[in-house]
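Field: COMPLEX_INPUT
Field: COMPONENT_COUNT = two
Field: RESIDUE_TOTAL = 736
Field: MODE = joint
Values follow.
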Amino acid sequence: MMASDIHHRTQDFIKLYPVVLRDLKEVYGTQASDVLITVSSGTGALEAATSNFFSKGDKVVVCCAGKFGERWVELASAYGLNAVVLKAEYGDAVSPGRVETALKENPDARGVMFQASETSTGAAHDVKAIAEITREAGALCIVDAITGLGTMPLDIDGWGLDIVVGGSQKAFMIPPGLAFISVSPKAWEMNQTANLPRLYFDLKREKKMAAKGESSWTPNTSLILALAEALKYIKEIGMDKLVENAQLLARATRLAALELGLELFAPNSPSASVTAIRAPKGMDSGEIVKGFRNQFGSVIANGQGTMKGQIFRIAHLGYFDFADLFAMVAELELILHTKGLPVKFGRGVAAVQNVYAESALAKETVPA
Amino acid sequence: MMASDIHHRTQDFIKLYPVVLRDLKEVYGTQASDVLITVSSGTGALEAATSNFFSKGDKVVVCCAGKFGERWVELASAYGLNAVVLKAEYGDAVSPGRVETALKENPDARGVMFQASETSTGAAHDVKAIAEITREAGALCIVDAITGLGTMPLDIDGWGLDIVVGGSQKAFMIPPGLAFISVSPKAWEMNQTANLPRLYFDLKREKKMAAKGESSWTPNTSLILALAEALKYIKEIGMDKLVENAQLLARATRLAALELGLELFAPNSPSASVTAIRAPKGMDSGEIVKGFRNQFGSVIANGQGTMKGQIFRIAHLGYFDFADLFAMVAELELILHTKGLPVKFGRGVAAVQNVYAESALAKETVPA
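Field: COMPLEX_OUTPUT
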């Protein structure tokens, strides 16, 4: 981010942008799909996923397992799509079986929209199974992977993920302001007849501009420069290693929570991007969030909406590593102790250490 | 450091520099002394402390408890001073009693030079006691506090510390390139007759320039800007809090080391700027340093000179906090475990957590 800014219509930018798009595609791990950048938050790219492939009145199946699932519902409603909403209780995921039933009952459904990881509850969907069912039904598989990319395996070509949305500030570890969207050949086909209104998020236009090494709209060039660096770093580490890291951290966090007598909010389909933990009985989770911030300057998230006060959430994406987690769990132990809970110092940390010690990481070295 | 650079002879700089000098003096905690900046590493300011107050052949007492003590010996020798060297074994400090005896045996000694904290061994000198003895003998009390400032109490006016040297990259938490030196009225008096050669490090000249809001030589203006910010931050936290933080971290580190069955290198006069720990029998401390770096990207120091391979050193100055230490100790436990030592995960971390829980920090909040 410290490099000098460059103007987005200059030769410098035109040289850099195709490299960024190529690296982004490599990191996404797809040959068949195009990967485009939108100058927006992740929600902008979710809107692009909604407005570029359907026509008014088209039926879509929407899996809704939390606040971000509700965003799909809002988008479908705003664009006049006929949404069949499969709701899961907060903390649960929508099972592939329910998607299969919905698609059998609605053979005219043209798309299935869901979150890879529902960040508001810490629950993950079975992306591979839902994608398979969706493909067999001939519908478009649309995945919000804003927190899923880099924290869970996502085989775009192998599993048939037609649209995969990512955001700059999550696994890509740069400030918010850019979002990413992969588009499969099947999605481009549907794009030809899709009549929903779109301009800023017109992906066909974006693809044409990208082919010329440009973007449709003025991008935050300093973010593009930062993205270029972030992509280099991710390629060096390897996307699979990034995913493995998040999975290990998530598992270690779950084991530490259980060791401390805490209850997981999404025990059956836990996400690797974030772990949601229930506050102990009679305690507001906001107190725990405040404890982290005020005592240690550490940032964890409270629950959103009705989950506020009930749960707290620890993220595992991007730069988070075991050193962070050792400290976070030690801090959590101290906070619970301060609140009068019977905590044996170091017990949760030991659970994390055990996961580390048993992992391949314990035998490896980090890049210099 | 990200602010635009400003030229050092411009009005902007002339406005900023006196503020920096005033804040530096406030953070040093002295009314009576001047505090000046040298554009050099800390060693440059140690040289200034040697060359500005003595004449050729003057006798000085030098306490030498490690690599940095040896630097005082070299400087005294280079400038033709007659040094009475009081050597301590590595890991020990020179006792005030030995200084007292030396000054009685050498009533013509004009100065006493020592390290507040000998970073190479993790041993600290009893600054207050040595200063008192030195003052009574009428000699100049010269303290290398490059790692001592911000990690131990140093009452410049109350204890009679005539010269106190600090460096930018330690407690001041900015990159290396600037050093600091306080000069008492008694030192200025001796400066009038001191005939050792000096120009770049001429403190009288520096004082004159500082009075005009300038520095004698071209300073790295971006470092001055960074220093301005660092001083604001330290003033906000409070120097006493910074010292208290380092003292707590050092104590917690010592207790954790003992809990893990390790031996401290300087058990009798431990420094709060760095804790030196002996490697377990038959193990090269370099392996531990490598383990931190390669497994976790954490930086600790090996021993220097003959202590290389024997000890490893964990720093406590500046930005280091309990979150860092929770992680460092968890990492140390894992490294020792990997090396086949019988380690109970979380046991050292618990020692750190106990120090935290019993401290005032556990009841306080960090500034937003």
